[in-house]
Amino acid sequence: MNVRPAEKPIAQIQADAVVVGLYADEPPSGPAADVDKATGGLLGRLVESGEIGTGPGTVTPLLAAPGMAAGQVVCVGLGPRKLFDAGAAFRAAGSGAKYLAARPRARVAFGFDSQWPAAWHEAAVAGAIVGCHGEDLYRAEKKRHPLGEILWVGKEAAALPGGLILGESINFVRRLVDEPPDSMYPESFAGVARQVARDLGLEIEVWDRAKLTQERCGSLLAVARGSHREPQLVQIHYRGAGKSAPTLALIGKGVTFDSGGLSIKTNDQMKTMKCDMAGAATVLGAIRAIAMLKLPVNVSGYMGLVENMTGPAAFKLGDVLTARNGVTIEVHNTDAEGRLVLADVLTVAAEQHPARMIDLATLTGACMVALGENVAGLMTNDQAWCDEVAAAACEVGEPVWQLPMYAEFDEQIASRVADIKNTGEGRYGGAMTAAKLLARFVEDIPWTHIDIAGPAYTEKPKAWLDGGATGALMRSLVEVARRISSE
Ligand SMILES: [Zn+2]
């Protein structure tokens, strides 16, 4: 898609539509005030009478508004000004774009508050690009049509290229996750990573089953045994800073389909399990964005890609696995497989001595029980590092909440026959017992685990986003890299 600054005042822009934002309980301001003036006060009167909503996610079209060169004015509610942030900017632009993308549009202009910081404009550009990308990859008749051209009103021209890169990288993540599991499996995912590396000039190394065996990744390999698909461990390196600069390691869970293995899921639990590789997809999307933004930072991505199936060689309850770092793990549930994959991938990452690590994983239903569907859980071995990750997420307006790592959760993963087992005791605290297992594989490197089981995927569409994959937390990862690069 193409995004460029608007050259004319909003009333004179020749476009299919102009999108403006309206704060709750306020008369129109900024570009919306310009529209109000051009229409002889029409916009203000309709807001006043309640015909045009101002709540977050509200979209009201005003067709053939007098005094406007564009075919329609799409009014998007921003909600109360005091609650507004970068996340709200992302969603507001996404709502307008999603509404308009129901039909092909050659040109759409967006006019938001000229007082916004540049970062909010950047988030809004990304939101507009994400809002018009649908999950209907295999429908003959598309429900969403990318906007032909986006014009941006105001003085924030510098925010436009970054917003475009973020928006398209989020759509890249969403496309990977939304692809059916028989098209996006470990080898095809690795193929996409190779293409990204080629396009952006990044170093890449892919380990197949033979190499993983030679490298003693027994924990990851056990999960892969029940599938005919070859497992893959992808390592990709972006070096935007000097050799002596510290490296940020991003590690992603890439279970391209999770049947649960012999601890098989129900039909209902299984039907969206193509999304169990969202962590790996988010890592690849973030590295793509960081490289395209040319951030002066070193970032390495590690993606553990397997399919968890029930074939004749499938791993079993009671099996004891030996992970790459020598830790033995007793299997009590083959559906707690993400941590087994990550165990070896974290070890591989830690061996390369990154300064800091973040892993992303659709890891536990327990995290969704604790925090709901829209909030990611953070768990850490280093409070200062977790605070930085949380601050980055807050900056871009993505909701996260920290969960505790008390020592007693360690007792829950003790095993009578091996060093540890792959589940806790009973139903409670499952997000933390999973994180406690991961903690055994990060050595003493500052590490934050992000459980994205809730926010990575939405079965129901939202006002600003089609259903399916969301690309959640990708903007947070890019913000983390930005903060490191300006340290
Ligand atoms: Zn599972």
Helix-strand blueprint:
Elements: E1 2-5, E2 17-23, H1 31-38, H2 42-48, E3 59-63, E4 72-79, H3 86-100, E5 108-111, H4 118-131, E6 149-152, H5 159-178, H6 186-200, E7 203-207, H7 209-214, H8 218-224, E8 232-239, E9 247-258, H9 267-270, H10 278-292, E10 298-308, E11 320-322, E12 328-330, H11 338-351, E13 356-361, H12 365-371, E14 376-380, H13 383-396, E15 400-402, H14 408-412, E16 420-421, H15 430-439, E17 447-451, E18 457-458, E19 468-469, H16 474-485
Parallel strand pairs: 1-6, 2-4, 2-5, 5-6, 9-10, 9-13, 12-16, 13-17, 14-15
Antiparallel strand pairs: 3-4, 7-8, 8-10, 11-12, 14-17, 18-19
Zinc ion is lined by residues 258, 260, 335, 337-338.
Count of beta strands: 19
- Runs with pLDDT <50, length 5+? none
Shape, principal axes of CA atoms: elongated
Bound molecules: zinc ion
The count of domains is 2
CATH class assignment of the largest domain: Alpha Beta
Discrete helix count? 16
Share of helix, binned: 25-40%
Question: What's the CATH H-level homologous superfamily of the largest domain?
Answer: Zn peptidases
Radius of gyration: 23 Å
| Cα separation of the termini | 32 Å
Work out the strand percent: 15-25%
**What order do the strands of the largest sheet run in, or round the barrel if closed?**
7-8-10-9-13-17-14-15
Under the CATH scheme, the architecture of the largest domain is 3-Layer(aba) Sandwich
Largest sheet: 8 strands, mixed
- Mean of residue pLDDT values: 97
